[in-house]
Amino acid sequence: MRYLVMRTENLSKEFRRQPALCGVTLEVDPGEVFGLLGPSGAGKSTLFHILLDFIRPSHGHALVLGMDCQRNGLKVRRLVGYLPQNLSLPKGLSGRQVIERFAALRDGVDLNFAYSLAARFKTNLDVPCGQLSAAEQRKIGLVQAFMHKPELILLDEPSRDLDTLTQMELYHLIAEFRAEGHSVVIASQSIAEMERICDRVAVFHQGRVIAVERGAQLRARAIRKIEMRFANPVNPQIFMGLNNINQLVCDQNKVYCTVQGDPDALLKTASQFRVLDIISQQPPLEEVYQTVYGIPAYVV
After folding, report:
1. 202-242 pLDDT, tens per residue?
2. Neighbour order of strands in the sheet with 33-37
3. b/e 91-103 (16+ beta carbons within 10 angstroms → b)
4. Which residues pair with 249 in a beta bridge?
């Protein structure tokens, strides 16, 4: 029988008769980086809370590391690494004391490895958590999630508050764990983050999974808004033959457009001229939902 580190079947949850999850069925393989993509309120954190038995589902069931979450909640929480979306650390304890307390709750934690993770994230463990920024607290949260080298790690908005260099270090760490056969499930509102590091991504909309995409598929569907400034005015006709370009606007020496998928052809075409500046931005997630899946990310 195929072993799965996580499996949910028809998982649903209601809060005061309001659906938070609706029939979610997902499978995560060993050594897979799996993404949960969706806006705030889409059900991603609710799924994590059910997997860790913080809350109980209204319908359906879930298995983590082959165990029923409801029957083995304590064991699951001890074995799985977890970073919550809203992290709150004891204000009077130092980062080192927090890590030591988490280590005491788990078996076989190598504190030297934990401290090496903190060094990678450039975290000062000797400052009281109450004096740390949100980013510094998040780094400590990441250390405790990875330090016992769990088979499965659940990360809820892990790059929130982190600077670019720390995000890159996190992505390197995830890749290293994946190469060693560990599985990582990441909840995020960033399609750029999902397409960058995930093998597969479940796209959430109002508590439902509307698609499960390969990372490569997500990259092929990615939407970017491009603004280019040239040294001299350019003829817009040179861009007309590019089949993945939309909303093309040329204004003297500036070109604005939307690119879906690989921007290589656009950049090669633009390189015929002297380019002074390029700005690439991803549109809001709700615009991606509308363009790619034909539905809004949320209903106002």
Report:
1. 999 999 999 999 987 887 777 889 999 999 999 888 998 89
2. 81-83, 152-156, 183-188, 33-37, 200-205, 208-214
3. eeebbbbbbeebb
4. 256
Alpha-helical regions (H) of the chain: 44-51, 73-79, 95-104, 111-120, 134-146, 164-179, 191-197, 215-221, 264-270, 285-288
Q: What 3-state DSSP class applies to 170?
A: helix
Mean residue pLDDT of the chain comes to 91
Strand, coil or helix: what is 175? Answer: helix
- The SS3 assignment for 83 reads strand
In angstroms, the CA 48 to CA 44 distance is 7
Please say whether the beta carbons of 300 and 42 come within 8 A. no
Rounded to 5°, the CA angle 124-133-49 comes to 100
Q: How many residues does the chain have?
A: 300
**What value, to the nearest 5°, has the Cα angle with vertex 11 and ends 6 and 12?**
145
Amino acid present at 23: G
The angle subtended at Cα 165 by Cα 262 and Cα 97, nearest 5°, is 135
